[in-house]
Amino acid sequence: MSDAPGILQDIRTIREIEASLEEAESFINRVKSNKVRLSLTDGVYTVSREEMSKIAELITTLERSGKALDTAVTYLRDLMAYDEVSQMFSRRYVFHLIEKELHRARRYDSNFSIIAFEIDVPEGTILGTSDVDLLISEAARTTRKFIRDSDSPGRTGERSFIVLLPETDAKGAHILANRIRQAVDKEYELSVGKVHMSVSGGIIDSQDPAVSDMAGLLYVMDQKLAEARVKGPNYIVK
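^ thats the sequence. predicted structure below, dont judge the formating
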């Protein structure tokens, strides 16, 4: 269990962003230092052969620099979209996807569900940030084994994550949640020794009248997670 690959990928991505931005900045500086001088003769602007060479050179590099900027923006979006520990979508991005799914469900009268999970360890277990990260990465890795390409998993808190399930009713979501719950439920080797991890959570159904907008959905999610905490580990609130 290691989050090193994710961190290394982020480092490579940041370096690629820097390289792309440096190339674009270089082009801008060339434009500034190679101002084209126009001559006005009898009310008509003309450009000397030397100045035309400058224009041709700048045009040649314009497309490459534009691609560099596009690449940098793409990489920045990737960093904003993913959580480096779980390799799931970030909280901001997965909530953006949920909001889009809400609009789609209202427009086309379609259905979707969300599974909200929190990881649980035995009461009194003290874990550092690195151990929590390891548990989250393992729970995320297990979750990815069970979900479809169309599903969207995202990390929403230090010990919580969700799975957005388009075109899935609450019954189907509950079956999937229990499969994930059973697969996660075991001991993991951490820096403090072996620790048993389980998950609890709840199912949010888009057909629920309370889930009419994002605020209502988040309220229902919080309520079901709170109920699951009371019920105890390994409990999924329908």
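The radius of gyration is 26 Å.
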